[in-house]
Amino acid sequence: MANSNQPAQQREGFGGYLKGVRKELGKVIWPTRKELGAYTAVVLATCAVCAIGFWLIDMGVLTALRQVLGITLN
Q1: Residue 20 CB neighbours (<10 A)
Q2: What is the pTM of this model?
Q3: CA-CA distances (angstroms) from residue 67 to 41, 54, 59?
Q4: Whole-Å CA distances, 43 to 34, 37, 54
């Protein structure tokens, strides 16, 4: 017999957990298709800017190392 002092969700087990998850998902305000497109564009643009920035830093470090070590390409 379950202890009556336990919260109801603990007594219901995994099924109660899933019911709670479904209830909480019903409260979510999902983005519209237009908002989702805008958010996706922002993420892709941010990734592109970061990739270009890291590439520039990498090229700068590589150039500096080549000059310090005296390495030339054929």
Answers
A1: 13
A2: 0.60
A3: 39, 20, 12
A4: 14, 10, 16
